[in-house]
């Protein structure tokens, strides 16, 4: 493996817009809201940014193609701006662009911004979109919950878990995230819910009920990155650095090679996780990682992701969930900010929103939801696509000296 | 003996839905109480994703059980309800069956006797044809709500393979008359039939014209009515076939049951469907008289041979009827026929535009469900690609065609999706594994909640994928259905 980028890049500043049904805002204003906080946090001005990456996924109801919308909204100084799209990993993908630019020495200071304006579609859920003409002829016409719901049927079958047990574990995931989101003023949904509410909710895609699904919302998040040396020169003392950044994309194996994959896990997450741990020097994630933000687009996704990240033993994720291992006061809190479940999922923004929470927690700036035991290594994880064909992204950040 | 001309094989397809006529009547009795007499039994109703092309494909697959498809020289499609007015409908069927490109294809239409006329033409040409003719008949007639047709009609398709050789039923001759008797009509582009008084149709049409044609045909064939073992008149109006048999001296037990209470009258397909039902039940040495009616009459005579006992098992008419699932959901039936404007929501607005170029390039994969098999590693995949999906082999261009439509499959994952737009929610789909390799994410059709579980046996059926409503183009693909 390549030697990696551990500790080569520091986060200079971050910002996050209030997520929700932002009827009052266009994507441009959401970008500015996240950027304002980030640039103030970084303590620099716009002219110091050398390059920028924009993560955004849905063009139909959004800002259109190219990096121009970001350059225009922030009035960037005619620098290189690249738009990236990698499904729900788009936010982390934009971060990767900025981080790699700094790590390579091509840029001193780079910006990553993710945004999505979903509430202009006219309905709940993600917009229906084409996946290319061949897929439109042969692929299923399904929804995101339908795609991820299939994890559950396979998981039950592979691990011999009853429908009721899995449904209860899934419900616990949602109850936990709502309890956490209730403490977060930037979350879309800030109301705690109980188990019965989740179990008795209307079915969206079997076995995912309404409360097994994350919200759809508008939002933006931003990161400004630089080298540790420049960060220190700019007066930063507590440095959060990037320990690992890995992305893995499906090559068709899961979907096409009969018998090769059983449908109960994410092949790419396992690969990205193994590479990220190697890059960060992590040998026992269950003991070394202190905080996680994972892609909880659906409750079942979070549950199997715990296994794919090698934190829970295969087939035991549902037990860890029910045991409270991932609760805010558990061993490794997961979605301490409320997660996608409560923030909603503005596609391009989510990856950066997760890193934002980890960044705040590491610096002890998370307010009422601040983890009392100081986190040392925090992981964020995104999934784009669907279980059978996806992009998995992992970012591990930690204190520079950790 | 190998110079015999006749029927080599047969098959049928009746869609699974069986709308209970009582439910239709119950909804319409306030308006049309006179329909009460027809409110008995059930009628076959195609699912939302079926049309005359998809039904014909299934009937053809049934007909071709045990037959080397490379043998088929011509495929013809008889119907008055084909989806395309200017695009060879039989051509789509040919592609779905993955028949040789050197196959002739023709649509036969314009009259309710199109199927019998199609058969006569095929049989007459068989003597000089090197390869057999796959004659398919398929019909899905639309009727206005609260009309007699709505209760009487049924959707179905059937097929026969005709040619020379070891036939299961020898063709003994035909007789046709052509008379512009307008019992009903439908103008080009119109949706519904306009029908004249049923008593006049029965007396002048059925009794008069068919009766005369049968008499003339029997005389021409030199066969007494009493010698007929299976007497097929594809009209479901009670007593018509019995009356005609009696007048022609045909024994009452020879009359082939009209399927009026189980399938309904399948229009052009009904003659072929009843012929398939007769062949299914026939022993060697039986004489089968087949009638077609529509602006004249066709009469055909067959005699079964010893070969009929050797045909491999198929779904046939019996299997199709057994596969039926009763439904009382009249509203769903109306919606699926485009007769009820339900609010479909914004998700139904997705543009389904089909680039002709992509369809042309991928026609084998899309229409025929032909995947690829790596000649080096044996890896089977769908769709075929330049580089195999086998992670241990990156050789380029090693794949050969590998048809998957007839390969058994099992469910690996599934869901029932209530969010995505489907005309028949929830939408069932999931990952399926094919026996011997290959897998795909497939939509499921004809599924009940009890049908889906990991490991469940599935088979593939040709169905409508979606309809481009802006440009009026139907897209077809394969779906997984539970093995009955």
Automatic annotation (TrEMBL), chain A:
Enumerate the spans annotated as Thiolase N-terminal domain: 20-227
Gene3D superfamilies, per database record: 3.40.47.10
Keyword Membrane in annotation: no
Q: Which UniProt keywords apply?
A: Plasmid, Transferase
Q: Does the keyword Hydrolase apply?
A: no
Q: Where are the transmembrane segments?
A: none
**One Gene Ontology MF term:** acetyl-CoA C-acyltransferase activity
Among SUPFAM superfamilies, the record links this protein to: Thiolase-like
Q: Enumerate the spans annotated as Thiolase C-terminal domain.
A: 267-394
Query: Could you tell me which InterPro entries the record lists for this protein?
Result: Thiolase, Thiolase-like, Thiolase_C_2, Thiolase_N
Q: Which NCBIfam families match?
A: PRK06157.1
Output the PANTHER family linked to this UniProt entry.
ACETYL-COA C-ACETYLTRANSFERASE, NON-SPECIFIC LIPID-TRANSFER PROTEIN-LIKE 2
Put simply, this protein is called Acetyl-CoA acetyltransferase
- In its UniProt entry, the species of origin is given as Sphingomonas paeninsulae
TrEMBL record, chain B:
What's a single GO MF annotation on this record? acyltransferase activity
GO terms for biological process, alphabetical: secondary metabolite biosynthetic process
UniProt xrefs under InterPro entries: ACP_syn_III_C, ChsH2_C, NA-bd_OB-fold, Thiolase-like
Write the record's keywords in alphabetical order, separated by commas: Acyltransferase, Plasmid, Transferase
The ChsH2 C-terminal OB-fold domain covers which part of the protein? 409-459
Question: One Pfam family, short name please?
Answer: OB_ChsH2_C
Q: Please give the start and end residues of each transmembrane region.
A: none
Q: Which residues form the Beta-ketoacyl-[acyl-carrier-protein] synthase III C-terminal domain?
A: 218-297
Does the record carry Acyltransferase as a key word? Answer: yes
Q: What is this protein called?
A: Hydroxymethylglutaryl-CoA synthase family protein
Give the organism the record lists: Sphingomonas paeninsulae
